[in-house]
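Practice record 12: protein with cytidine-5'-monophosphate.
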Amino acid sequence: MKNFKERVIIALDYNNLDSAKDMLERLKGEALFYKIGLELFTSCCDKSVKLIRDYGCKIFLDLKFHDIPNTVYNAVKSAGELGVDIINVHASGGVEMMKSAKKGGMEAADKIGKNIDIIAVTVLTNLSEGDVRDIFYYSKEKTNPDGLNGGCGNIVGNLALHLAKLAKISGLDGAVCSGYESVEIKKVLGDGFKTIIPGIRLKRGNYAKDGNAGNAAAGGVRVDDQKRVMTPSMAFNSQADYIIIGREVTASNNPIEALKAVYNDIERFAGN
Ligand code: C5P
C-alpha cells in the first residue's frame, strides 16, 4: 500500500507535554500524523499543537465537539486557526450543528491557507450493540433480527451509517467509525467520503464478522475499553482513509518496534 505512513495517526493520550514530547522523540521520522485528544488538550492547550507542529507532523484535533451550532461554529473556527489538519464533531449534534462546524472550519482554512477536514464521530468504538441499545432505548427483539451483535445490518451498523449520511448531507468530509461499518459507509456515501478507524489492535485474533470484541478478547486480543476492534491491515482493507492507534504503540515497552509492527502488518496484509 502506497503512502500508508501518512494514513496512520498516533493518539498522544497524555496529560503533560513531557510525555508527549518523549513519544514524539521515540517515533521521530517514523510517525507522521498525531492525534491530540481531550486529555492532552485540556491539560496543555495549544502548546500541544505547537509541539507537534515543531516536529513537522500533521495533527488531528480530536475534541469531539457537541453543542449548539453557534458554539460549535466558533469552537471549530478557533481550533482550525491553531493550524491543525482534522477536527471532529459528534454527528448526533445534528445537521445544523455540523453545517456550522464546516463553516467554521472553512473560514479557519481560508485564514491559515490550508485545508482542514471536518469529520463526524458516528458510534464510538468502545460501544457494543448492547451499549447502543441501552443508550437509545432500542428493543432487543426489533433490532437484532439476525442474531448478530454489531456490524452493518443491525443497530450499530445502521446507526453509524445513518449518522454518516447526516454528516455527508451537512457537507462534512468524512466520519469516524469502526472498521465494521466503513465498507458500507463508503459504498453508500462514495469513496470521497473519508473514514477514520480507531480501535486498532495488532494481534490477529479471532475477530468476528460482527465486530463483537468479546470474540476478539476470547482470541487473546487485548482490547482495553474498546469493543469493535480490528488489525491495521483489516482496517485498511475495510477502506479506511486513516487509522488511529493509541495504546498499542504508546503503552508498548518499545513504541518504535510496535509502530514498525503496525507498518509491517499493513505492508504484508493490506491490499491497495
Ligand atoms: O488505540 P487505543 O484504544 O488506545 O485508542 C484510543 C484512542 O482512540 C483514543 O485517543 C480515543 O479518543 C480514540 N477514539 C476515537 N474515536 C472513537 C474511539 C476512540 O478517536 N470512536
